[in-house]
Design brief:
The protein is an all-alpha fold. It contains two helices and no strands.
């Protein structure tokens, strides 16, 4: 589908997520019906989770940078 390995990996993971959702809920996204506001609520919740995950990664990265600075005598 694409020569870009990064995109191919993302597509593969999305397809697997879709299959797991179909197994869990018994419907495809195409078949799923719910009010528009519920779709917006779902998207907001996913984005809030993403913000939390990104903040956690920032904390981890800051700690790693500080450790590296200490290891190199603060020259980074």
């Amino acid at each position: 589908m694409t020569k870009d390995k990064l995109i191919a990996n993302i597509l593969q993971r999305m397809a697997l997520r879709s299959e797991n959702g179909i197994k869990k809920f018994g419907l495809t996204m195409t078949e799923t019906k719910k009010p528009t506001v519920a779709w917006i609520d779902d998207a907001q919740e996913e984005l809030w989770d993403a913000i939390v995950y990104l903040e956690k990664v920032k904390l981890i990265m800051r700690k790693e940078i500080e450790k590296s600075k200490e290891s190199f005598g603060g020259t980074l």
